[in-house]
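Q: Got a minute? One more chain.
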Amino acid sequence: MKEVLLLAGTRPEAVKIAPVALVLADHPVLRPVIVHSGQHVDVVGGALRAFGLAPDVELDVPRATGGQAELVAGLVPALDRVLRKRRPAVVLVQGDTTTALAGALTAFWRGVPVAHLEAGLRTGDLRGPFPEEGNRQMIARIAALHLAPTDDAASALLCEALPDSRIVVTGNTAVDAVRRVAAADRPARDPDLARLEQVLDERGERLVLVTAHRRESWGAPLDRVLHAVRAIADRHPDVRVLVPTHPNPVVRTQVRRALGGHDRILVTGPLDYPDLVRALRRSALVLTDSGGIQEEAPTFGVPVLVLRDSTERTAAVEAGCAWLVGTDTTRILAEAGWVLASRLRLPPGRNPFGDGAAADRVRAALEQLVGLPADFADVLPMRIPSTP
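A: Always. Here it is, folded:
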């Protein structure tokens, strides 16, 4: 058996590696090993449980300041010990987190091939999103396999002079994950969400989902967003707003200070992934700076206002699934008002980020990376539904 280490330290990472772990579960040669880095302690296990998975290895990386340098300094030796003990054939990192960067560096130093899931997303601005854009570009220089979610992402990698032979367009495993969880249709676990669903059903009201956490939005930009959110609730009496807060205490405090006390705004802690999918499915509108929700919402035809000045997920904007509104209060209010007044709903199932078979393509690419015969398994061609 050849081990494939799948690293996850945040909930989005856990969600996006889960489909890969599942398609490798019965593989005759490749054995998935899920490593929880400990970056976000409380949410990774819950996200994996939604798929019937659990970490095989959990790292204990104590943190005092919460800074990036402190996290990297703890992660690298801990991951190095795992690699030295297990000697995997591949280390798969996902996206742009500190876990992904530390895992890629450690594997590179150990001479273990790095497969980068969700490779090639770019804004071209190292300050936005920060530090994610820099993390992605650094991982790209040392990865042996680039698993690009879209043709645009693959083109960005080619423009950086990376070999075409190391780039595979797979689609985004987020689409695989959200389809799987939505199909299970589990009842809400969070009691606040369950009560909110009951109120929405009884009163025929609509839901607006808001998630905002990116570092570049902390402070004044997030205050402008939250002011707009409160105004949306004031201006639309048939709307209730759900705001699951980020685990970061700085973000959580700022959100509760701005939105607390409004009778039609519900501020909760982080929701389990199945609960977040439930909320997303029934939303009339989403306001978010999250990359994952930009990828997931088109599956359900939910319009998205992106609370950023730029996005590396341009496919959603180009497909008419999302609109960049930044953090300007007036712009947010105008766009949200238009969507809510028009009761806009997009055709569900036409997701520009993939067709739900990304994990199968990742499996085939990993087989080739470790040297299995080219005809070991059929490779599915990438098929993204045409936009309306």
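A: Residues 214 and 244 are 14 Å apart (CA to CA).
Q: Perfect, thanks.
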